[in-house]
Write a structure and sequence with these properties.
Shape: globular
Strand content: 25-35%
CATH topology of the largest domain: SH3 type barrels
Strand order of the largest sheet: 1-9-2-5-6-8-7
Distance between the termini: 51 Å
Radius of gyration: 21 Å
Structural class: alpha+beta
Mean pLDDT: 89
CATH class of the largest domain: Mainly Beta
Number of domains: 2
Order of helices and strands: EEEEEHEHHEEHEHH
CATH architecture of the largest domain: Roll
Number of strands: 9
Length: about 210
């Protein structure tokens, strides 16, 4: 498919895909802080944000699959490397939750890939270990020390080939320079009600309220 498999000693490059990298999950409203006596107490981050000093906390860490987003020059010399999490496509793009036909998949993978700039599609391939359609979620990033990630190159399962990497690079730039706006703002009140059927979490603008 669209993947290559570099030697384990090859330098880290943009488009490299890793498994088993740590993602830290925590809540700023319920942060488990280790007290001086070794116990745990849940504190809101705002209560300690202005304190100067080291804070020790107990945080949940889970392994995830991720792809290198940092450009190659920074991968060689920078202090940190940024990666984006990879998850099953159905979890990233909700429009394909119930998709089964080849025709529908083709429409989503081609047309929606041009419209939705928040993800990058990765096809299944047994050689790289993707049994399902996957996607890079640009909304979820990891930052890891470059030296540490270089020690974890045995967790690199492959990288994007030339064509896919060129596309990936453009998708990243499109995502971070896109103009953020609520796409439903010009809809009439009737059109907004129809839009809300598919996106129930959105709120109307004043001119859309009957």
């Amino acid at each position: 498919m669209i993947y290559e498999f570099p030697d384990s000693a090859a330098p880290i490059r943009q488009g490299d895909i890793f498994i088993g990298l740590p993602r830290i999950d925590f809540s700023l409203s319920r942060l488990p802080i280790v007290s001086e006596d070794g116990g745990l107490e849940e504190i809101k981050w705002i209560e300690i944000a202005r304190d100067i000093g080291l804070v020790t906390a107990m945080l949940a860490i889970r392994p995830v699959c991720a792809i290198v987003a940092t450009q190659d020059c920074d991968n060689q010399h920078g202090r940190d490397i940024t990666l984006c999490e990879i998850r099953e496509f159905r979890d990233v793009e909700r429009k394909c939750k119930e998709t089964t036909s080849y025709k529908s998949w083709v429409k989503i993978i081609t047309q929606h890939a041009r419209i939705n700039q928040k993800w990058f599609y990765l096809p299944p391939d047994p050689q790289i270990g993707f049994k399902e359609k996957m996607a890079v979620d640009f909304m979820v990033t990891l930052r890891l020390p470059r030296v540490d990630l270089e020690e974890l190159r045995n967790l690199r399962i492959g990288r994007l080939n030339y064509i896919a990497d060129e596309h990936f690079r453009e998708r990243i730039s499109d995502f971070f320079r896109r103009y953020p706006y609520d796409e439903w703002y010009p809809l009439s009140s009737e059109e907004f009600e129809e839009y809300k059927r598919e996106y129930p979490e959105v709120d109307p603008f004043p001119w859309q309220i009957k």
